[in-house]
Give the backbone structure.
Amino acid sequence: MITVAYFFLMQRFAGKMIWGTGVLMILMNIAIGIYFLFLRNYVGGVIMLVLTLIYAWIFYSWRHRIPFAKLLLKTVTRVTGQFPATMFSGFIGLCVELGFSAIFILSAGGWLLKTQQGSGQTNGQANGGGYVVFVYLVFFIF
């Protein structure tokens, strides 16, 4: 159902959906970084905020490409609308994406719990391997 709604919204408001998705992604990543800082997980918070700055810079540098992307999206959604089986493919893709999101949330939450509980270390500090796992998880979700 969500895929169908997103599809119809993309047909009517392609440009606004591109901008909205980019801005929401930036805001969500900032919130995650601030949340990590609030939990005194400074390395995780800084990594998340730095990656958010990189994403924001890339999104800003691509702003002149959005009109072309808007045209492509409108064309693709118009052609895709003629073949209803693509909606089913979108639904299957949504299920796969939900699975990846669940894996990310569980893994990042487990990593956060492990570092906050100290995991045998002092002051809740994780070892270097823990931060490598976190960076991998961040790139995994992107």
Remarks:
- The chain is about 80% helix and 0% strand.
